[in-house]
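[Structure tokenization] protein backbone as discrete codes

[Encoding] learned vocabulary of local backbone shapes

[Begin record] amino acids and matching fold tokens:

___
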Amino acid sequence: MVKGFKILLTVLIATFILISTPILHTLSQTQNMYEPQKLTFEVYPDGFVFIDYTVKVDPTLSTVNVTCFGVNYENLIVLDENETPLDYVQVNDNITVYSLGSSIVHIFYLTGDLTKKSGKMWIFSVESPITNTIILPAEAVIISLNDVPVDIKTLDDGRKMLTMPKGPIEISYMIEVTGTKDYALLRIKEAESAIKKAEDEGRVIGLDEAKQLLDEAKNEYGKGNYLEAGKIAEKAKEAADKAAAPVQLGTILTYFATFIILLILAGILAYKFLLRKGGSKSGHVKEVFAVNLDKIFRQNPQLRLEDKEVLEFIANSGGEVFEAEIREKFKLPKTTVWRMIQRLKKEGIIEVLKIGGQNLVRVKQKYRLQS
């Protein structure tokens, strides 16, 4: 009897395992399903990298397991498409996000795991699942790339922005120090390359000035005046970049005809704009009112210093500003401003309205001064 019971129990357990294993495997695969949408790596001079990763997920799943980059994370934030924080659990480079009801997951964090330094040389390396953006410091000088960038440009603040294809990425670069021998030599080589490029493209007008400056830079370099040599070489490169090709008569006539056409089109567009402006005015009309800052600070002593500074900015701006204006004024990341606004909303000080796809931050009625 006992022996028969043991056999029956063994059969039941084996059957359960056979049935449940494919189900658990399917569930595991489903939870790991996500589609990378956007990926940005912003590299800082100290080697830390800020990562902005956006993935598309199935809103019917309770969790999704996202493989990230690096293992040691700082300031990790996970948001949905409405910028609402999501709960998560991190194990090494895997983040399990409780994403039920969300179709987009945004992941932001800092890590020092993607760079290493050998002497003066830094190496950034990562395996990317999609085409991505890499932003290097303004002081960075790229030494080598393991792949050809899809695009490369210099931002207004001097930082280099590369668009790289998916797959393994390795970028070697140096953080230059102004005034050193290496700095001067690098600037001279850049000027030489710019002059050669101008000659190859037939841009000879203004090139004599660039060559003269380059000779002066080399002369200062030979004297050991590396800082001065670097500065003069930079001017030589600028002159070479601005060098122009001789303009032919046919080209002049073509430019003139193009200018006339553009002038006519501009006149037509201006006329249509004036007609629309005279008819109906669209867009947000700013509501200006005075804010009782004393009352806000008195009733909310727990406010942080940065909260008070933002509230003073809003008050000085007439009681309402767009979220983008706050970011621009205080040079803060989007996530930092978002968290600050959420705090002030929770305290009942401000309200947030959607205007044309932007967040309008407005002080609530109870903190306005009566006119």
Observations:
- The chain has a mean pLDDT of 86.
- The chain has five domains: 1-31, 35-175, 181-242, 247-282, 293-367.
- The radius of gyration is 30 Å.
- The chain is about 40% helix and 25% strand.
